[in-house]
Please model this.
Amino acid sequence: MTAQLSVCFIWHMHQPLYKDRLTGKYLLPWVRLHAIKDYLDMVKVLEEFPRIRQTFNLVPSLIEQIEDYAHNEAVDEQLLLTIKAEIEYTKQDKFYILAESFHANVGRQIRVHTPYLELYLKRQKFLDKKLSYEDIIDEFSDQEYADMATWMNLAWFDPMWQKSVDDVRQLIRQGKHFSLAQRKQLILVQRDLIKQIIPYYRKKQEEGQIEVTTTPYYHPILPLLIDTNSARLPDPNVVLPQKLFFHRDDAIHQVKAGLDLYNNVMGQKARGMWPSEMSISPGALEIIASQGVNWAIADEALLSRSSGLAIYRDQYGNLNSADTLCQPYELTVGDEKITLLFRELVLSNELSFSYGGREPEEAASAMYMRLKHIQQRLFNSSREGVVVIALDGENCWETYEEDGALFLHELYKRLSKDSTLNICTVSDYLSRQPASAKLERIETGSWIGADFHIWIGDPEKNRAWDLLSITRNFLVEQIKNKSYSEAIKAAAWEEIYAAEGSDWFWWFGEPNNSAHDEIFDQQFRLRLQNVYKILGQTYPLELDKAISLPKPTSEDSLVAVFEGIE
Model:
């Protein structure tokens, strides 16, 4: 008799705060563009597969921005240029459109639309001659600029909407010469789709087909907020910033604020949490558990380090240590208890980085067979095992045909037909199979290398931490010595909390390069500058100096998606 196996997919939806709260303008369009490509359709597809139940993690700073675009007429530069009359385009507008209208996967989002590809190749012809954007501004007509801006919107609609929404389908068929009225209508279509996202997640959670979890509000690395010395636990040789960051209160605030927003939006308490970047420590987990969270997700490397048990795989990457990995663990941290589940690394990474380059049927079969291998390894288990597949739910799909729709349909069909596989939410599983194994201790680390080198240790990252420390200390001193209204103090603190987000540190220094590093740099320093502005003070000139050093870029990097990838 085949052992029953639960499979828990956890899709992590995350964007940093792109909004300058003092001006109300968004500095990058990625929340809006991902909102029309990834968030709604990922849940909509489950309507066809009632046996498939899944967990979705929504970061609070993402929820805030989705609601802002949906209900508060939020705008960003790309949106504004889309709805601006082409005869009014300035030279600066045209430079922006040339530089920013092709941030899409060439194979999956540009080549499939001939008019968009023609614009891309025309621009590329000049760039191949080593000409700058300034050199080629006059090579394109005003209408071509309007068409570029429009295609940046059209290409980011999920194929589900490209096929089913009349306005989108008609513009794609038209291909060029988009009028101002059409462009304005396109943005209204986007807002209508964005308005559906949060209510739909709430509805599907109430129906029981999905579970929605959350993260500390601005997606900070909790162990580093508690104490930057935490970075030395997994890596004793790490070079730390000059100034110690030691603010447990900030970590508590980030967790509580995230849970409060979730409660308000979803109408219930969150049962689970995805710690930002799966970064955990005993102190971080104690804070999470103390706020009523039942379970959290972490990477398998931290289970191995904490338990002393190696995770074995065969030569093809199939998991052999299923009894170790495929179960929940109870952990006591301080006076609190929390259940930990650890993701299966190979399946999560293949979904993220590999399967998009394979035929949908082949990739779905490969994933299904890996799951069946794990199931066989649990044949003698006395309890129902669980495989946790946890990954970024946004950025992986650009490499897939039709944004992953064909692959997901093939996969879900296979999983739905197998009665020995229970595709369920994490809390569903834990209600049937609460943790019986216990961890005596938990190591400190993240999902990358089980340490924090992505966010601290590099000279640029360390300088950012020092500037954050200096600005936070300034805020504390100002509040102590001067009288400010509660509203002003709250606004200033909010800028500090936003600057604590993981994404800014992700792009500083090595090894990551977004080809938009200067904008992430600017946004980080803007948060700190805003603290001084809110308090009516002049910010130090040091905050005008770029943290990021120039890095070489290639055209390949210019078609990437420029967010932190989980």
User: Anything to note?
Assistant: Confidence is low (pLDDT under 50) at residues 553-566. The chain has 25 helices and twelve strands. The longest strand covers residues 5-13.
